[in-house]
Design brief:
The protein has one domain. It is 93% helix and 0% strand. It is mainly α. It is rod-shaped. It has one helix at residues 2-28. The longest helix is centred in the middle third of the chain and has 27 residues, at 2-28.
Length: 29
């Protein structure tokens, strides 16, 4: 269970980071 929770947390962080990068790229365009 703890491992799954850790993976979910990591996935959420990746999504947030991805969205931030996406916004930065859109601003550049």
């Amino acid at each position: 269970m703890p491992r799954t929770a850790g993976q979910r947390c990591t996935t959420t962080r990746r999504v947030i980071a991805h969205e931030s990068i996406h916004d930065a790229l859109v601003d550049r365009l």
